[in-house]
Design a protein that fits this description.
The chain has 19 helices and 18 strands. By secondary structure, the chain is an alpha/beta fold. It is elongated, with a radius of gyration of 40 Å. It is a multi-pass membrane protein. Pfam families: 7tm_1 (PF00001).
Length: 745
């Protein structure tokens, strides 16, 4: 009997010890499993158990550097009831995961730098409890650095503090991709192929607070589902053309964008979206009217704000039908009120108890501001514009202003354009249609007129864009600055400037040869030599104008399409080269004219007593000095301020630099055709020749003949021949030019 009692006691003691051990395993400290540089091909409960771990005690499971892993038995995770975090990285053969089973304790799910092709289905990880009390949520879902191309429907129907899909291959975010999800922070950073966001991509996610779309290729941003957004990041995304109005974001506090002009849209909402701003002002006026005479203490703050919205509603829309493909969709719809572009559902207002309880457990609740930045209290109506912290802020190169900036500048530029275009077209028309022998000066004048005409066309393009975008340029800034038009305008500007400088230098050298070595005909520049020289000038000008199109500096850095921004050494070298070539040209021109004056300084002695010829040459030199003076007046201010900006000490911003652009930079384009050609007797002679050839306006031709060639008399020239026709004047153009002190062309 005693033996049997002893046996019973032993069995009871064994069962008690065993139960106590199991309880310790269940309530004791969890186990962290780390498999580093493992060769496993299948991750299962059996493989983990064989590694010496008890499944019930595992809280953290990490698989690091598993080059052969291609399958994960996700159903076995249900055998790990205490699992809180799952981390898999560097598993290139892991392409897909089956839908995860319920895992109530899971808080972190991370699969990074692996071969996943689509987002795993996490919708059943945390099933809702019956009483909807203390709902669990994921702290982080990190799927960074995989090969994910698509987001399956309802795969991310989760409650999560943050979801990261960074640096994948996602090309599109479809409609309702996050429907019924409750995500606070969502990031798509580094998805360089992401070009399309459906208009309803974020619909159904009313809790989104932070959104990151940096380093993507999106061109627009939908607003549905982003009403509660607080922080928006779209950095290093040059493809983004347009940002929505600030009225679409009720609670936006910070915006980190790519382009300066997008921040102008937030700073000037009345100019960014005038129609929406007008509606908004109407709504504010209606609210003020509704609140007149109301006592502030008549109702609680919460109910009063909600009632104000319902009193001033302009539209009443039925709640949007749920996605028909959703197996859990409800068929009934509730009414909604639209106020300031936001839909408020009666069952899902931020005032509901369930939402308040959820926010306390999930993340900090947002500050209610239903009037979109304006605070309205019945009996005490006040306005206080909400400021959004936006970067990059408008700077000296991209201010929040129109292309021309000031009204007087906008009017002045058209006068400059008219003078430059009309003058240079007139010169080209006369020189190119004249059938007389082509001379070197005439050849050079054609190139000079063409380069100055390009300057006029550049200013014309800027003026047209300014008229089209008057008052709201930042709405057109992307299409202009990053479009073909700005590239063409910038190319014309640099090309015309370089070709004009080069041509004027050659013109000066040709005059120097012609005047200094007048008796040495063999030292004159021949037409063939001039053609070769100008071919080199064209090639150089095209090269300098084409480098910004190839990535050296950039025409898109400012609204006036000039390569003024210096980001690296290559940009600085390029801009320095532009200034150096202009400086060398100026020095060459000045030296040549000093030599011309020195050669003419002896009056008529150098020409064997031909004082009249020397005076004529001096007159020519004085006129050429006037021409070069206008060019120096044109280039010197631009060069000075350009050099100071290149040295890192800018003395003038783009707003004031536009004055230089309109009044100084095109000065030679306006003055050259008149000073070089139109105001000379040779041009008038060629112009009359052209008119005589047409057979019209004969009275004007006859009048010019009488004024230019008075009839001979017996006292002055008894044996004078008959009056030569106008077309024969070209035979003696050099003699006539020198005799009258004109520039031969």
């Amino acid at each position: 009997m005693y033996f049997w009692k002893l046996q019973i006691f032993a069995v009871c003691f064994f069962l008690l010890v065993r139960r106590s051990t199991q309880n310790n395993e269940e309530t004791g400290d969890g186990v962290s499993v780390e498999l580093i540089q493992t060769n496993i091909t299948r991750l299962t409960a059996k493989s983990i158990h064989q590694a010496g771990y008890h499944l019930h005690s595992i809280e953290h499971l990490s698989i690091i550097d598993a080059p052969k892993l291609d399958y994960v038995a996700v159903d076995d995770f249900s055998k790990m009831p205490r699992l809180k975090s799952l981390f898999i990285t560097q598993a290139p053969l892991l392409r897909r995961l089956n839908p995860l089973p319920p895992m109530p304790e899971l808080r972190t799910f991370m699969i990074t730098t692996s071969g996943l092709l689509e987002v795993p289905n996490l919708s059943k990880v945390h099933n809702k409890n019956k009483n909807n009390v203390s709902l669990p949520y994921l702290q982080a879902v990190d799927l960074e650095g995989n090969h994910i191309k698509r987001i399956p429907s309802h795969a991310l129907r989760v409650r999560a503090d943050q979801v990261s899909l960074n640096y994948n291959l996602i090309e599109e975010v479809p409609a309702y991709a996050f429907k019924y999800a409750e995500i606070s922070k969502l990031s798509f950073r580094g998805n360089t192929k992401l070009r399309k966001l459906d208009d309803k991509a974020f619909s159904g996610n009313l809790l989104l607070r932070q959104l990151d779309l940096s380093n993507t290729a999106i061109s627009s941003l939908p607003t549905e589902g982003l009403q509660n957004l607080q922080i928006l990041r779209i950095e290093k995304t040059p493809s983004l053309k347009y940002v929505p109005s600030i009225y679409e974001f009720q609670h936006l506090e910070k915006a980190y964008l790519t382009h300066h002009f997008h921040c102008c849209a937030f700073a000037f909402p009345e100019r960014h979206d005038p129609a929406r701003h007008k509606i908004y002002e109407t709504q504010i006026a209606l609210m003020a009217k509704q609140c007149q005479g109301a006592e502030q203490s008549s109702m609680p703050r919460k109910k009063r704000s909600l009632q104000a919205i319902r009193n001033v509603q302009l539209n009443e829309n039925s709640k949007e039908a749920l996605d028909p493909t959703d197996e859990d969709d409800d068929t009934s719809a509730s009414t909604s009120d639209e106020m300031f572009g936001t839909t408020f559902d009666e069952d899902e207002l931020v005032y509901s108890d369930s939402n308040e309880e959820f926010m306390e457990n999930f993340h900090e609740p947002i500050t209610d501001n239903l009037t979109n930045g304006y605070e309205a209290k019945c009996g005490n109506f006040s306005l206080s514009r909400r400021e959004v912290e936006c970067t990059p802020l408008p700077d000296a190169l991209n201010p929040c202003e129109d292309v021309m900036g000031w009204s007087w500048l906008r009017a002045s530029v058209w006068l400059v354009i008219t003078a430059a275009v009309v003058g240079n077209v007139a010169v080209l028309l006369v020189l190119l249609t004249n059938h007389t022998e082509l001379t070197v000066p005439r050849f050079l004048m054609c190139h000079l007129a063409f380069s100055d005409l390009c300057t006029g066309l550049y200013l014309f393009m800027l003026a047209v864009v300014d008229l089209r975008s008057y008052g709201e340029f930042f709405n057109y800034a992307y299409n202009w600055q990053y479009g073909v038009g700005c590239k063409i305008a910038g190319f014309l500007s640099v090309f015309s400037g370089q070709l004009s400088v080069f041509t004027l230098t050659i013109v000066t050298l040709e005059r120097w040869f012609a005047i200094t070595y007048a008796i040495y005909l063999e030292r004159r520049i021949s037409l063939a030599a001039a053609a070769k020289i100008m071919l080199g000038g064209w090639m150089f000008s095209i090269l300098m104008a084409g480098l910004p199109l190839a990535g050296v500096s950039d025409y898109s850095s400012t609204s006036i399409c000039l390569p003024v921004e210096s980001k690296d050494v290559g940009d600085a070298v390029y801009q320095g080269s532009l200034f150096m070539t202009n400086a060398i040209a100026w020095v060459t021109i000045v030296i040549c004219y000093v030599q011309i004056y020195r050669s003419l300084g002896g009056g008529g002695e150098k020409y064997g007593g031909r004082g009249s010829a020397a005076a004529a040459e001096r007159k020519i030199a004085n006129k050429m000095a006037l021409l070069i003076g206008t060019d120096l007046l044109c280039w010197a201010p631009v060069a000075f301020f350009g050099v100071t900006a290149l040295a890192g000490v800018p003395l003038v911003d783009v707003s004031h630099g536009k004055v230089l652009l309109v009044f100084f930079y095109p000065l030679n384009a306006c003055a050259n055709p008149f000073l070089y050609a139109i105001l000379t007797k040779q041009y008038r002679r060629d112009f009359m020749t052209l008119i005589a050839r047409t057979g019209k306006c004969n009275w004007l031709v006859d009048k010019y003949k009488l004024a230019a060639t008075p009839p001979p008399t017996a006292q002055t020239n008894p044996s004078a021949p008959a009056l030569l026709p106008l077309v024969d004047y070209q035979r003696n153009q050099s003699q006539l030019s020198k005799g009258n002190g004109e520039i031969a062309i």
